[in-house]
Amino acid sequence: MSEKALYNVQPLRTQEEIDDLKWSLERYCGRRDHFLFVFGINTGLRVSDLLPLKVADVRDRTHVVIIEKKTGKKKRFPIMALQSEIVHYTAGMRSDEYLFASRKGNGPITTTQAYRALVKAASMIDRDDIGTHTMRKTFGYHYYKRTKDIVTLMEIFNHSAPSITKRYIGITQDEIDQSLKDFLL
Questions:
Q1: How many angstroms separate the CA atoms of 45 and 75, rounded?
Q2: Could you say which of 32, 133, 137, 166 is catalytic?
Q3: What is each CA distance from 109 to 38, 55, 85, in whole angstroms?
Q4: Angle, CA 51 vertex, CA 84 and CA 135 arms, to 5°
Q5: Residue 78 pairs with which residues in a beta bridge?
Q6: Whole-angstrom distance, CA of residue 30 vs CA of residue 10
Q7: Is 136 a catalytic residue?
Q8: Active-site residue among 32, 34, 46, 142?
Q9: Stated pTM of the model
Q10: Is residue 89 flagged as an active site residue?
């Protein structure tokens, strides 16, 4: 995906937008894709790091620990707040099963399959600015809005500068729009 395309994919900025996409995923795509979205927006992990996870990686755990595919760095992320969602979703699943198992074969779904599910659900609610990065951007947008801590978010995302993080989550444009809202000469 080009950098330009990456920045055209938007975070979901309101709880209503998040709830609409959750509803659409559940209704049109199913439990797996709904849980992928919920897990993604609450961890900020890249989709390529979410898909290989197995039930044992999250069940009865306080943190998920991964080696990021893109950076090769070890990442430990708290998932205590997600435990009720995890328990509900993984009920009846074996510990060695993929969280996001493909219906074809023995592996997880691909990033392309995850993208298609999100785009399908988004189209059902008339959105054309949703992709797999929407999950990560939504996490970042809401984390920043709650904490105003761009430095920690930059660390979470492994970005090299706060300006990159702000642009990635759409805050820079929001701030510009807000500053110009009542500007009139």
A1: 9
A2: 133
A3: 16, 14, 20
A4: 70
A5: 63
A6: 23
A7: yes
A8: 46
A9: 0.91
A10: no
